[in-house]
Amino acid sequence: MRTLIEARGAVISAECLYREIWQDDHAHTRGIVKTTIYAIRTKIGITDFIETVPGQGYRIS
User: Fold this and answer.
1) Domains of the chain by start residue, with CATH
2) Which Gene3D superfamilies match (predicted)?
């Protein structure tokens, strides 16, 4: 979340989020990041707070 907030609306790729959070470089990043974003959206109860930008990544809207 911190990475997205600090980006101030800029799009952050799933790969970048994965490296920032897990400090690793795996090929299976999209599934893990997608699941984590879903969990955050569900937890905070605001589904459109984190916007998915198709083919690019995620941003705080």
Assistant:
1) 2-60 (1.10.10.10)
2) Winged helix-like DNA-binding domain superfamily/Winged helix DNA-binding domain
pLDDT of residue 30: 66
CA angle in degrees (0–180, nearest 5) for 8-1-44: 110
Instruction: Count CB atoms within 10 A of the CB of residue 7.
Output: 16
Pairing of strands 50-53, 57-60: antiparallel
User: Minimal CA–CA distance to 51: which of 18, 20, 7?
Assistant: 7
53 Cβ contact partners less than 8 Å away, ≥ 6 residues apart: 11, 59
pLDDT tens by residue, 37-49: 999 999 999 888 9
